[in-house]
Amino acid sequence: MGSRRAAAERRRTRPAVIGSVAAVVVAGAGFGAYAMYGGGETGDDNARTKSAAAAEKVKSGPLTAAEVTSTAQRFLTAWQQGDVAGAAAATDDAEAAKALLTGYTKDARVQDATFTAGTPAGEKVPFSVKATVAYEKATAPLAYDSALTVVRRDGDGEPRVDWHAAVVHPELRDGDKLVTGKAGDPPVKALDRNGGEITAAKYPSLGTVLDGLRDKYGKKSGGTPGVELRAVRGESAGDGKDGKGSKESGAGEVADKTLLELSKGTPGTLRTTLDPALQAAAEKQVDGRKGASVVLLRASTGEVLAVANGGHGFNTAFLGSLAPGSTMKVVTASMLLEKDLASVNEKHPCPKYFSYGGWKFQNDDEFEIKDGTFKASFARSCNTAFISQAPKLKDDDLTRQAKQVFGLSMNNWTVGVPTFDGRVPVQSKAQMGASLIGQGGVRMNPLNMASVSATVRSGSFHQPYLVAPSVDGRALATASRTMSGETLGALRELMSYTAAYGTAAEAMAGVSGDVGAKTGSAEVDGQEKPNGWFTAYRGDLAAAGVVQQGGHGGDTAGPIVAALLKAAG
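RE: above sequence
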């Protein structure tokens, strides 16, 4: 009886699951809840001898629907059953997967997890998660959506889950982990400059900013911690642009993120420099534009009045590391003016092409300006007008100008939240020439480029800040020198002329007062369209924005920046 009962039990479990899988593949039905039941292979089931593996033909070609669904089923079933080794074996990086999946229950305290797969889209399989997080006496339900992608494993071509931390939770970057416990940092009630509370619900762009404020000031603002599930950033966590979460050297750190609150802590209060009306205007300008980011500063002080990102998962406005294109010509022009390599109203070469360091550079649409002035070249954004001066420059001239006058590329800004402070490396030959027009190794974000316009408008560098230094007694970064009055006046004339008659004129139409602007577009490998940039000032305000894959800056980032300057009154 016992043996017959056992056999009957086996017939009711594993064979039924295999049958349901076959039905899904044949009928093309949705890849649903069958992943919640048994039947997934384990690492032992899939073991092969080295001799057999060597003799077996390496699989290649596109994945079949059956391979995608069965691999996803194997992974999700093992994960749900607590078979960490089996789930990890279903991935292409078993070691990394095993570590994070072990931490899912051990460190994140996730219990009773149920994974329900959705309909595959090619090699990608979405799935939903429902679970409970428990820590001491505190519990809370957890629900979120994620996805996995099936690929052929290097070496044998076997289908495996392409392992990334984001499979476990979409907020994770590779190197991160999930942890539940008493929050190391108490919550912070952030206030705008008028005393109103700042929340991510009211200002969606500020979610990452609030995380950064908590990391920096949670223990200093008088609050007490609660219990929560957090994404704890690892050393390799970055902006995730390359899909692996890698971070460029010198880029600012990404703050830990609260994913679920099990019990509330008592928040401390922290006043920021944000202007509620201007922040609302900035949010409106980037709403629905995932690649758009903008920053508005008070030029004379460096106070950040508004910051917004169309994509809310990463603070590109502060942490982005992107080639700024021709907006960098503001810095380059200041250097050429100081070195007497250019003068506003004197003739300056702008040929169709200029070769330097083995590269042939050209202007947009291969235009040229015959017998034109430097003012005309700056206003029309002539690349060759700048690169033609490269033979007369030292490799470190641009780097020194950026650091000494504009406070960039020193990695010492203390804004109040993590920032990337620009990068202008010393380069030679063609790369040095490319740097003069904001390509090569030059990297910036809207905060950096808003600061560049603020420096031109105010006459000296004032480090941007979101929290006043008086709050915690920190020192702000400084620049070692200022431009001469003659150079400053010439640079303002160039930017003013560009705003009125150059590539920035259309966007700046209707922006009254003392204004100046510069457009830019930056080519990026693999992108069909360049990133569009725009930096400008009006009175005591300076702003900059970028629209990734937007095209020309005057058409994309320009209207965003101009609208924000107008909103300031």
